[in-house]
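Sequence in, structure out.
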Amino acid sequence: MTIRIPMGLDSAGTTASLDLEELLATRLLVQGNSGSGKSHLLRRLLEASAEWVQHVVIDPEGDFVGLADRYGHMVVEAADYSEAEVAGIAARVREHRVSVVLNLEGLDVDAQLRCAGTFLNRLFDAPRGHWYPVLVVVDEAQLFAPAAAGDVGEDARKAALGAMTNLMCRGRKRGLAGVIATQRLAKLAKNVAAEASNFLMGRTFLDIDMARAADLLGMERRQAEQIRDLERGQFLALGPALARRPRLIRIGAVETVGRGGGPALAPLPTLSDDDRRALLFEAVEAEPPAPPPVPPPVPVEALFRAIDDKAQPAVPADPAAAPDEGEDDTAAIAEAVLQDIVADADAAYRAPPELYQDFIVRCRMRGHPRPALAPTAFTRRLAMARAGLFDEPAPDDTMAQALAIADRLPEDMLSLFLSIAQAARDGAPCPTDEALAQTYGTHSLSRVRRLIGFIEGQGVIVSRTDLRGRRTLTIPQLGWSTAADSPVEA
């Protein structure tokens, strides 16, 4: 299912949309001078995609903290935490799939670079089980990926540049989709900018920036002159997620408000000479008013709890009074969607984090606005479904005993073990390596054999091969054993 995000209107008055799934695979670069509407564009993208994908916003000026009130993003005030605490927050953000705005306002430039580098590197280094799709938006990217050394410390510059390079060059396989915005293409590191396949180019006046924009858009230098004539909020779009040829787009309205935009013109006050003199010179020696007290920082433990709580489904205050209506429907929808996913041949070899996005969309198509399972529960249920179990077994069901034994194994081996347990319980022939490989989601038969050897090494199963090459797998704790299978191929 293709998810298209409406970004605005083109020159013909037609809705111009962005393919979100394509964007996650190909990344985006936004360029435009100050006042061209970059922040407005990013806000439009974030608002329109908030229900579909997790966001991480690196915000050097605090322009995007308003997303918290309308869309539930959690604001992380970076100035209140140490680098180690920032890294811990990033790990929980990746694990629990909570959308956040990392507000770097109040930090000097060196501290902003170190903090952003630490946060992005921790997102990048997340374990494979947490590689869920994330839209990582970096405003003022030329600060974090400068083309040349400047006035900042060399260590801070290298840390931020390395993190940005990882994000744009190697982040796709880890689910990280970079969206970077810059005022000056000439000041942005070329190896970072070159990894984007989608471009939105706003008003630019300097020749060196226009030349780089023209190269990225595949335009002749004479054609690039039109970039000077763009109005505020107009962008030339190009890329697989936007348009195959340069297309002029006027970005649509947004619902939240940023802190930027500049002051509005207002008439000067009408004052007499005496009033002006009194305002300027009287009480010069008086003590200035005390600044308002600064609110105490949120302890990192409290922020950890908030992230953990945000990832958990809401529980009614009085469980006895909670209505039961709809719970059966939710379970039925989860079971039906899992059956559809398992039946889809294209889904057999896709990773659980990627399939969870498909699961969310299928739930919505069945009229369920929220996912019927949390990400961690989905991974477990998907492994069970691949083994033929589409619902949690009752406590007195024999497969509940097998699930209890499976807790001793890594989560990704659950489907493999349950397939063996099903055959062993029923006395069916031992599953072939090919069947187990399809259940596990791999084309490698040697990998399946290594996994079976690992499970046997944990004392969970016992493998026996007779002289004719027929394999039997036994679960000693349950007394179950498969029938002999055909000879195992070398």
